[in-house]
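Weekly sync notes, structure subgroup
Attendees: PM, AL, DS (notes)

Item 1: joint prediction request from the bench team. They want all four components modeled as one assembly rather than separately. Inputs as received:
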Amino acid sequence: MPTTQSRPTLGRIQVLKASGVLAEHLREGILSGTYVVGAALPTERHLAETSGLSRASVREALRMLEVEGLLATRPGRGGGSVPQLPGHDALQRAIALFIRGRHIRFGALLEVRGAIEPPLARLAAIHRSEADLAELDAAQAGMEAAFSELPAWTEGNIRWHSAVVLASHNDLLIGFWKAIGPLRYAASGLDEPHNSPAVRSAVIGAHRRVADAIRARDGAAAERRMAHHISAYRQHIEAQTSPDTELATLE
Amino acid sequence: MPTTQSRPTLGRIQVLKASGVLAEHLREGILSGTYVVGAALPTERHLAETSGLSRASVREALRMLEVEGLLATRPGRGGGSVPQLPGHDALQRAIALFIRGRHIRFGALLEVRGAIEPPLARLAAIHRSEADLAELDAAQAGMEAAFSELPAWTEGNIRWHSAVVLASHNDLLIGFWKAIGPLRYAASGLDEPHNSPAVRSAVIGAHRRVADAIRARDGAAAERRMAHHISAYRQHIEAQTSPDTELATLE
DNA sequence: GTCAAGCTTTGGTCTGACCTTTAAATTGAC
DNA sequence: GTCAATTTAAAGGTCAGACCAAAGCTTGAC
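Output from the run, pasted for the record:
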């Protein structure tokens, strides 16, 4: 019978699950401010009642939003599901999953870092505040003071690079950078015991030049110098670690 | 009584939920290959039996993995939960949520694009294959042919930039780039009806110069020229759209 | 006033049932 | 025998109701 009826193009009807619909509603409510961040949602039983769904469906929706970083749930009286805005941690988890799942090689991570950190330095030169400069100086001073104390040196190095990145005030790029950081460290052996004093002196000089450009609001110079610095680091690392190493578990 | 007992540093004991434990097990199994991608997982009832949990808990775990992009579930006989590796779509969803939640401004998105696309051009020059060059040429020819046909022109423009980006063969950076693309278009009015013929001629010239550098494997030139091209586009766009526009709904 | 015991609220989990979807198996007309 | 319609079975989707566990609140003994 129905062979000659009109067949409008209609691809794969999207069957919506109850939990999915509720999740969508809550997601939109949290992002748009209808559900106030920090103030607990109605209880599961209440959500079930008002939505007409079962508690099981409500809970599935809440689990989804939890994974998305949109709420945190705590048991017990005074607990509940508290909305929050997705932070760097949620972004980082998603990126880490992507990296593991797609078998991203270590070399590709170095490429990404080499790609985004110089532009971050440029943005830092443009957007940096006085407080950013102070933190940058403090990190630099810390490294120079810890010149011959390797754990502190490494820690200071991370702090310095973080200071540059944060000074960019570009939250999304900062998120990308922070997401690949831990994986890089994990793959390169956590700290870098392979730094000769000569290398460390060179690092201090390079940092100083980048910081000068940021202070002078010279974006082009900051980007160029950071690219140079990272390129040197990369040659240094690639001489010791195979760029074909596959990234494994996170932390 | 317990004031002087030894107090080892112990922060916030992590209380694990049954669903969380199961999710972790399945996640690890999928990523490590114990559960074969494409081959359905055991049924929910079976998972419940073997794990000793209830079906409700099993389903919460499955919902979590579904959000993470690690599996797809279909009802009906022959259906089931089929493992998959997280793709660009999952990454894009997470990034889109981050952008909405953190109220990232349109201007910041332009910064991100300006930051990562030039390095992508450099990587394209390094890693491009012959097939990549062919696609790049085809996109270029398509644009020139559609010079006075705006929708096709815009489509061709996207295709050309995609061709450059894909030629980089850096899956993570490609993921970043693809994630911010739709949001950029959404915020800038989807297509760009504001292109005068003079602008379009300039675009064709700029594209040709970038492509030449990629063909010649000249990474530095490709990056420089792409940066120049994007910078011009950005000034063009910012004259028409406020960079302070907040990004709203996706798609 | 202090502190411990119990109460109450809220999420966490389980059991078992029933509905819906979809592919496979069966049946029957030709 | 072949093919289409029908039936059946195997999944996921949903629900209802119970009980457990955590954690703040209340109350009462001291």
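Discussion: Chain A has a mean pLDDT of 87.
Action: AL to compare against the crosslinking data before next sync.
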